Amino acid sequence: MPRLLLLFFFICGFTVILLTAAFSPAQEPTPPPAEPPAAAEAGSEQPAAPVVEADAAPGGPEQPASEQPADPAGEAAAPADAAVAAPKAIDKWNDAHSIWRSRAPYISWPKLLLIFLLFIVWVKSADWVNRDSQIFDMGYGKWNPILFFPFFVLLLIFTFPVIVGFNFFIVSSILLAVCYLATFVPYVLIRNKAVQLHQKVFTPDWFRYEFSLLASKVGVKVEGERKADYEKGAPVDLKAIGAPEERDNQANLITARQSPGYLLVKELVAEMVDRRSDRALLDYTQQAVVSKQHIDGVWHNGEARDRESGDVMLAVMKTLANMNASERRKKQEGKFSAKYKDVNYICPITSQGVPTGERVIVKLLGGYQKAFRTYEDLGMRAKLSEQWSAIMGQDQGLLIMAAMPEAGLTTLMDVSLGETDRLLRDFVSIEEENHRERELENIEVTTYSTAAGQTASTVIPSLIRKYPNVYVLRDFSDPEAAKLLMGEVRDEERLVVTGTHAKEAPAALLRMLQLKVPQRDFAATVSAVLCTRLIRKLCDSCKVAYTPAPELLKKLGIPAGKIEALYRVPKAEEIEKPCQECGGIGFKGRTGLFELLVVDDKIREILVKQPQLDLLRKAARATGMRSFQEEGLLLVAKGVTSIAELQRVLKE
């Protein structure tokens, strides 16, 4: 569209210049007043030429003109006087060489405005046809020339005469309008036959709907009924992405939209987003469907559904995910996408038959999740983050990060790698090609394929020849790979970063030994373990302060008078209406608790001779490691969380 506007303005400007230079109508200039003839030189007197009048010369008798006496001297001077009196084409500045300029108007502005408006309508229509024909596969390569060239040719032909006020202006305007309608209307008619009812344009329902939208912008509510059944309900846009081919996805989406369960799926996604849920659990029994929402790491009961509505909702989700909707016993996995409040989400779905019926888990990926980039974002204390940063910056050793499943291990590793120096050291990451992690700057990724029979140990030898400073292998499940990397730590003084699942830092050491890594090599190379757990934070809008009893403070190890109040979730009788911030839960968001275990010779000796959890815990305490309980009590004292929440986390 901007290019067409520029072309139009170029044509108009060129027309004005051309008309100014060549096509202006002729107009005689006004001659200047005649100057008197120059006086004769002194001493020479010549009589003035007699004036010939129709009647008679003054002072003499009437005679015919033919009988008037001729003056030879006057007749001789007549040509010279005529030359002096001839008017010269000069302007008001007495310049006889200036270019003449007409005072008549060049452009008919009303006519030009009319043509310009018609041109804008054509440009907007052509732009809409171009986009619309691609969306509905109407053949934009055919319709774009049809709308462009006829109108453009007529515009070129009639632009010049229209601007100068051509007598056939009405004819030219009508031809342009007819040309526009003759190319635009056929597209609309053909398009409306190829699309669904609610997608038709320039129909009575379409005009009513567009008018309602326009009126709503100025605060006037007008009922507009142009929504298809699947467009009603929650403002969620679902999309099928489970099939390998886009054609199959489109077919699945069309099938799903025809079901009444489509609106129920939209309501489920909207509810999950509004409640900050990362997954929903649907348990299908013979009578009903029990629903639960997983919010900030804790399951909360949702609204139960009847079996009939639950079945049609599940059938729609399976169709969108390209799963078998009739299969209710075997395990199936798929995914579909959703868009809500201008945010895109990926919704993996897993179904599995159980003795009571069927269990379905729908996850919600993307959207509201906060981007963690620093240790402070994770909730790590400043002193602890400085200590861990120094450990991550060392040149040699085996560093282990640990957490319970789905409790922040990936995030902890990403932040730790992102916070360390990656410019002066070469980092390489080893990943399975179908389980890629988030890409981090200045970390070279090398993949292997389990489908091709490869393992991490397959690609490590080629990496060793590159002499990297830091190896990142997030899973030590391959004993051969672990042996190779620990050899790099021992012999080449390299740094290796890995992770595992464990409840506490001492348990992470035992977990690594369970992976069949060489025991002595592991004890000699391991340097530190950082373990994390997630704890919910009290909602700042509705948390309630209370004065703790001295016995409670003593039990918690908090000195009397150190704090004035602790905080908790409001009780039911204290709530007038549910909190808008947390949805009546009492908690909003989570933060991290951390245990940092720095391995010393005593711990290495236990790992080699007697690897037991109680001995490792005792040795870890001797190194000065703060436990999860001690870290949690600091948050309780600061009012970040409650005692009940800390107890829940420690019991996991």
Low-confidence stretches: 16-86, 161-166
> Average pLDDT across residues?
80
Question: How does the major sheet shape up?
Answer: 8 strands, antiparallel
Distance between the termini: 62 Å
Instruction: Classify the beta-strand content into a percent band.
Output: 15-25%
Nearest-angstrom radius of gyration?
45 Å
Into which percent range does the helicity of residues fall?
Answer: 40-55%
Description:
Helix 4 (140-163) packs antiparallel against helix 5. The protein has helices at 2-22, 72-85, 109-135, 140-163, 169-194, 204-217, 246-257, 261-274, 307-320, 375-378, 382-392, 409-419, 456-464, 479-492, 505-514, 519-525, 550-556, 601-609, 613-622, 628-638, 643-651; strands at residues 236-240, 277-284, 288-295, 298-301, 305-306, 332-340, 343-354, 357-363, 397-403, 427-432, 443-448, 470-473, 495-501, 526-538, 544-546, 566-568, 587-598. The chain has 21 helices and 17 strands. The chain has 652 residues and is an alpha/beta fold. It is elongated, with a radius of gyration of 45 Å. The strands form 3 sheets. Strands 1, 2, 3, 4, 5, 6, 7 and 8 form an 8-stranded antiparallel β-sheet that branches. Strands 11-10-12-13-9-14-17 form a 7-stranded mixed β-sheet, sandwiched between helices. A two-stranded antiparallel sheet has the order 15-16. The chain is 43% helix and 18% strand.
